[in-house]
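Entry type: protein chain
Record version: 2
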Amino acid sequence: MHLQSYLKERCDSGGISAAEMGVMLALAAAAIAITALIRRDGIDADLGAETGDANSDGDTQKALDVRAEALILSHLKESDAAYLLSEEQPTPIALPRQTAPLIVAVDPLDGSSNIAVNVTVGTIFSLMPWDGNLPRPCRGRDQLGAGFFTYGAQTTLILAFASDARPQCFVLDEDKGHFIALGAEVEIAATTKEYAINAAYAQHWHAPIQQWKTQVLADAYSMRWVGSLVADAWRIFRRGGVFLYPADARAGMEAGRLRLVYEANPIAFLVEKAGGLAVNGGENILDLTPQELHERTPLLFGSADEMKILIALHKELDA
């Protein structure tokens, strides 16, 4: 089944609104355009070059970040979205249809620093309701839908709406220019023997993560670490496991590294739909109310049994 047919069926059955369908089709069209742009990165060296500017989060922008955001913005202007919240911008961007009921939040090109070494990158997105007042991000649990595209050996999409029981996965047929459903619904097994964490920072981890890592080493778990959030997440959605990007003792890492609105909330939404859990340590990510657009958070997600162990360790050792 093609993505367009899937969305139309969901809309006709009342599972999603026409506005949600239109926004998703716009994001899919943008992802196809971004795929073509990324395929040229090895040919056009300027695409991977730094612009010299920093985004709202202080990270150095690459030309691809800017171009990806521009493509997303261009396509969303034709959809029923009132505002775009971008990880690259300090304030919301007003879209032409100010009576539209949706706000879209995006990380336009997550992991763009990996482009030069041909590692998978992606676009993460969240669909949020808008009541006509100031455009603010909602609590994670109140998202209307979320997902992410990956750009690697394949261009893929994982997507879930609030009314869905499980996320769905799609892959882009680049010859025909549309996304095709991969079939089975996504479910993250409750148990696992695989984990992803950047062990280079082990000396800086707080006690709960140190204790958990000691336990998994004793139980002969396998570590898998790509260093690209969307690549590690896609693997977990396809075959299970856990991902940890905790806060640590380094300066500037006290509140974690990843963004609550643009990365943690969409991923957490998908994870819970798939039967897993996503936490910041002792709290469920989806229960957090963003206090600012670019708020940071620790992010631990994946197999539910491992997350419950981590929650217990944080409550015990952080007390």
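Comment: Residues 194-317 form a domain with the D-Maltodextrin-Binding Protein; domain 2 fold (CATH 3.40.190.80).
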